[in-house]
Design a protein that fits this description.
- It is built from 6 helices and no strands.
- With 217 residues, the chain is mostly helical.
- It has one domain.
- The longest helix is centred in the N-terminal third of the chain and has 46 residues.
Amino acid sequence: MVLDYLKRGFATGAVGGVAFGLYVAFVANPLVTYVDDLAHGGHAAEAGHSAEPAVSVAVTKLVSVGSGLFWGLLFGVAAFGIAFYFLEPSIPGGPDAKPYLLAGAGFGGMMVAGALACGLAGAVYNRLAARGGRLRAAGAAVLPFGLLAVPVLLAPANPVTGSVPGHLAAAVRGLTVFSQLGLWFALASAHAWLDRRAGEAGIDIDAPVTDAPAAAD
């Protein structure tokens, strides 16, 4: 039973991850590159430097798709495989609605994790600073953010620095949030689609398992 959920979670992650990777490669990355060129293009030309990228566009797109696939598989197996197996009975709604509710909870959980890290850092600092050790308190307050270090380091990033118009910088920040929403939406859609296909094939992994057929009256 658990293996069925893990298989569907893996397939969900594969489909959703590839879709997310293609979005990053052909939509998000070109926009970030455009904004970055606005910030640095003129300075590079004035200095006489080559504007050719160090990594080819094809390699960048391939890495983007691979990174999207990695995140899709990670969230697909963890959320739509393991977590869905335990939480499905308590999630309201029908079979088509449950994946989207879980996706919303997963996205919200990421936001909550960041807020909790900030709150925990403040609590640690206040407690230790009250004992007279501000330097030690400041050092300890950084530790909660270590909980977020692994996903931050693994996540694909395209930092934009330099003189960028405010509206473009806001667009890039909004695109980052939209990208994460898109990943969870793609995962939920893939999971609902796979669930429907399993139902059409006569495979109902959500049905309760009975040890023996019901006795005839």
